[in-house]
Amino acid sequence: MPPSKKNDQEKKGAQRIGNLVSQLMSRRGYAQSAVNDEFLAAITAAVGQGIANEITVGKLNRGVLKVFASDSVTIQELTFQKRMILRRIQSTMPQAKVTDIRFAVLTK
Question: Phi/psi of residue 55, each to 5°?
Answer without folding.
Answer: -120, 160
